[in-house]
Amino acid sequence: xxxxxxxxxxxxxxxxxxxxxxxxxxxxxxxxxxxxxxxxxxxxxxxxxxxxxxxxxxxxxxxxxxxxxxxxxxxxxxxxxxxxxxxxxxxxxxxxxxxxxxxxxxxxxxxxxxxxxxxxxxxxxxxxxxxxxxxxxxxxxxxxxxxxxxxxxxxxxxxxxxxxxxxxxxxxxxxxxxxxxxxxxxxxxxxxxxxxxxxxxxxxxxxxxxxxxxxxxxxxxxxxxxxxxxxxxxxxxxxxxxxxxxxxxxxxxxxxxxxxxxxxxxxxxxxxxxxxxxxxxxxxxxxxxxxxxxxxxxxxxxxxxxxxxxxxxxxxxxxxxxxxxxxxxxxxxxxxxxxxx
Length: 341
Hints:
The protein contains 17 helices and no strands. The protein is an all-alpha fold. It has a single domain (2-332), classed as Glycosyltransferase (Alpha/alpha barrel). The longest helix is centred in the C-terminal third of the chain and has 22 residues, at 311-332. The chain is globular, with a radius of gyration of 19 Å.
């Protein structure tokens, strides 16, 4: 996990995520709901086309020791964002059909290799290993055999929790509860502590790593969008979040353009109900306007020269996912509208 985060942060530092080849969508200077909806629908279809054409060669990724479960979780997560709010049963069926080959791969012995990984690669894969199971369950696939495989390596899962950060332990605790896995003491004795949020750092103290932790404490607090109340944050924390979020969004929209981080910050604003704020509207429009012509988000072409087409799943996939999630949560999710005026 740390290695993946470091790779992602280095990419984001080295390459501006403001795409030089982005195709701008025409928008109005004000936040017109009808115009927003039309632009969102066009943007969504282009993103779907891109993800449909992206093929993950999971055995090849596994052979390179890149953490294929991480990328699989991101890939399925894109389709899950579509699926959960979709009302058309035919489209739901199409999504399940698209994902069936990947589900079938998770039934293979090759996929369930966790016990053979070194500590670093195990840690990199472990949270995503549970998330993939959760995603397939939510998509209506049978996870009976998957859960049996998880039980086989549960002592290893329990042991690595000791080196996990607080928001990560909270996510594991949610998965253990969902899948009726016996809680180890490292989770039983852990109480949600909002870490970097309680420090109330000023803007200048934030670097990319700290912003990443900040957004993920909020994601964990809302169970990645499955919970609609901010009950894990007290009034003082909510006041601080409300003040710092627009500052961070403005920085990564203007001073240090970075659409990957901006996508996460916009999702945080949606979860917290800050969608009537000027900075949300500017940032949301920025996401719409900076989609690449092929439907993805991000600007990693310099890295393609070094690592080839792997850059599609190693960088573009994550950035496209976080931006798509923000657009979907705002337009179709339970967070539609603002909780705050």
